[in-house]
Amino acid sequence: QVQLVESGGGSVQAGGSLRLSCAVSKSTYSRYCMGWFRQAPGKEREGVASLDTDGTTRYADSVKGRFTISKDTAKNTLYLQMNSLKPEDTAMYYCAAAKSRWLLLSGYWGQGTQVTVSS
C-alpha cells in the first residue's frame, strides 16, 4: 500500500507561484510513475504533469512552461512548482502513483490540496 499526502496549496493572486508537495509513504516509490492531476468544480479531472521512472516528464499543454514536476528521492517527496498562475489553474490538485503512467488514474491517490488563483 502506498500512501500519498499533498500539501502546499493555498490562495494566490494571478501571476504568483506555489509549490505543491506530495509525501509518499513508501521508499520504493522511485519505482513508480508519479503524476499530478487537478479537478475544478464542474469539470472533469485532468492530468497536469507526470514523471516516469526513467525521469521523463510530460505536461498538459495548458501548463507547459509554467509548471515543473520533480522529486526528491531522499525525502520521498514529489513536487509541482507552479509559476505564473492563472485563475483557470484554480482546482483541487492530487498526486498519484502507479507502476506506469497509463495506470495513474487507477493507481494510488492522495486526498488533494486546494489551489485558488484570484484575478
Task: Describe, in plain words, how this protein is organized in 3D.
The chain is mostly beta strands and 119 residues long. The protein has no helices and 11 strands. The chain has strands spanning 4-7, 10-13, 18-24, 33-39, 46-51, 57-59, 67-72, 77-82, 91-98, 108-109, 113-118. The strands form 2 sheets. Strands 2, 4, 5, 6, 9, 10 and 11 form a 7-stranded mixed β-sheet that branches. The N and C termini lie far apart (40 Å). The model has no long low-confidence stretch (mean pLDDT 94).
Describe what is shown at a glance.
With 119 residues, the protein is mostly beta strands. Helix content is 0%, strand content 50%. The strands form two sheets. Strands 2, 4, 5, 6, 9, 10 and 11 form a seven-stranded mixed beta sheet that branches. Strands 1-3-8-7 form a four-stranded antiparallel beta sheet, with no helix packed on it.
What do the pLDDT scores average to? 94
Helix content: under 10%
Largest sheet: 7 strands, mixed
What is the overall silhouette? Answer: globular
Give the amount of beta strand, in percent.
over 45%
Radius of gyration: 13 Å
Beginning-to-end CA distance, first to last residue = 40 Å
Category by helix and strand content: mainly beta
Q: How many helices does DSSP assign?
A: 0
> Regions with pLDDT < 50 over 5+ consecutive residues?
none
Number of DSSP strands? Answer: 11
Order of helices and strands: EEEEEEEEEEE
